[in-house]
């Protein structure tokens, strides 16, 4: 014979003990809202505003490289050599800009 269950037993059996999709409820504690996810575009704009010299150096490096390769293909050896040296300078500028940006961020947090 099946035993009749009370409404309390039925409610306890239907609802799991913990709902993993929700944070636990603790009396007297309200958790901070989760920060919104930052997309690629938003992060790129924020980083560019923090240290604008890095993208400038990257664009200068890419421009000197492409222009130098074009000059090399056309047979302009002196111009090609000059542009390859310019590319090395632009790369150095970019590396220095990254190092200065990291140092400024580290000093800013203190």
TrEMBL record:
Location (main, coarse): mitochondrion
UniProt region (Disordered), positions on chain: 1-22
Keywords of this entry: Membrane, Transmembrane, Transmembrane helix
Manganese in keyword set: no
Keyword hit for Membrane: yes
Membrane spanning stretches: 52-69, 89-107
Subcellular location(s) per record: Mitochondrion membrane
One GO term describing the cellular component: mitochondrial membrane
Domain HIG1 intervals: 25-110
A Pfam family hit: HIG_1_N
Ranges annotated as biased composition (Low complexity): 1-14
One annotated GO biological process: mitochondrial respirasome assembly
Protein name: HIG1 domain-containing protein
